[in-house]
Amino acid sequence: MNYRELSKEVSYALRHAPSEYGLVLDENGWVDVQELLKALKENNKWASIELNDLLSMIQAADKKRHELVGGKIRALYGHTIPSPIKKEIAEPPEHLYHGTARRFVESIKEKGLLPQERQYVHLSVDENTAYEVGKRRDEKPVILRIKAKLAFMNGISFYKGNADVWLSDSINSEYIEFH
């Protein structure tokens, strides 16, 4: 089984289009794993999928994108569905990073970082990851250093996505250093 392809399919179902799969996420983004398996089996490509395949997919992932607990599964971040997925506020590290295309820099200086089509702004714990993310939209991305701890102390909410990804509703430009 191609776990990378499966991960993309599960991410699409849980982050962007649960209704296309007949799924209803709870307020924390969870869905019954048996419902997800049933929905995936309806697609001939995943007709033989079993619970162990989902477990192997999660284990094989280079980044932690999904979690399976107590018979339920969810995507940890990246949602574009209209209903907000609730996250617990957590104190971030001193600095976080965000890679962006050069064409967005002036807008970010003016308006700060906004979630755009996602529910949250995605931030990385290190510059290398931010650079790789930024390269998706620009071959020479700009790396923004976020004064996360200071922003948090001044009332900006942060949420831990996983070990490498932090989320925020938005980041005011005063907390952004442009490099």
Write the layout of secondary structure elements.
Elements: H1 3-16, E1 31-32, H2 33-41, H3 51-60, E2 66-69, E3 72-75, E4 96-100, H4 105-111, E5 121-124, H5 127-134, E6 142-146, H6 148-153, E7 158-160, E8 165-168, E9 176-178
Antiparallel strand pairs: 1-3, 2-3, 4-6, 5-8, 6-9, 7-8
Helix pairs in contact: 1-3
Account of the protein in words:
This protein is α+β, with helices and mostly antiparallel strands and 179 residues long. It has two domains: 3-75, RNA 2'-phosphotransferase, Tpt1/KptA family, N-terminal domain (Arc Repressor Mutant, subunit A, Orthogonal Bundle), CATH 1.10.10.970; 96-178, ADP-ribosylation fold, CATH 3.20.170.30. It is 30% helix and 19% strand. It has helices at 3-16, 33-41, 51-60, 105-111, 127-134, 148-153, and strands spanning 31-32, 66-69, 72-75, 96-100, 121-124, 142-146, 158-160, 165-168, 176-178. The strands form three sheets. A three-stranded antiparallel beta sheet has the order 1-3-2. A hairpin with a 4-residue loop joins strand 7 (158-160) and strand 8. The mean pLDDT is 91. GO terms for molecular function: NAD+ poly-ADP-ribosyltransferase activity; tRNA 2'-phosphotransferase activity.
